[in-house]
What we know:
With 153 residues, the protein is mainly alpha-helical. 79% of the residues lie in helices and 0% in strands. It contains five helices and no strands. It is elongated.
Amino acid sequence: MLFHHFITLVLYSGSYLMNFLGWGLVVILPLDFSDVFVHFCKAFGDTNFRKIANCFGFLMWLGWFVGRIYVYDRVIYDGWFVAPVDKIVGWHESYMYNVMGWFLTMLSVLNFWWFYLISRIIMKVITGKNAEDDHNLIEVTTTKDNEFKKQIN
């Protein structure tokens, strides 16, 4: 998640500093559209209203697909390959334009990964299994942690 925030911060500030405000809008509009359903899903997730939480989970999945997978990637493709900016004058601007494009692509890869995780949870709901968000349940321990735990016990 820290990587996501770093990329977003670079894209916001870079679009402002380079006067490519369209890059910032590409980050804000399609990505924040799906966040509305994410927060509703979180709000109802820990309550007894499981059907409402599941409905918002499906809407989150659908909004994620439309906003972050289809629209976001389409805008990146159109802006980077189909209709490049004619205002680029020097090699510095051309270089930064490509750097910003790569940061947008990295954010797209993260969106695909999160869409995969959300799809797994949706499939668990459909099949009637426990729809627990399992990416938080993965515990990474090192040998030092294991040795420390053995010494305590």
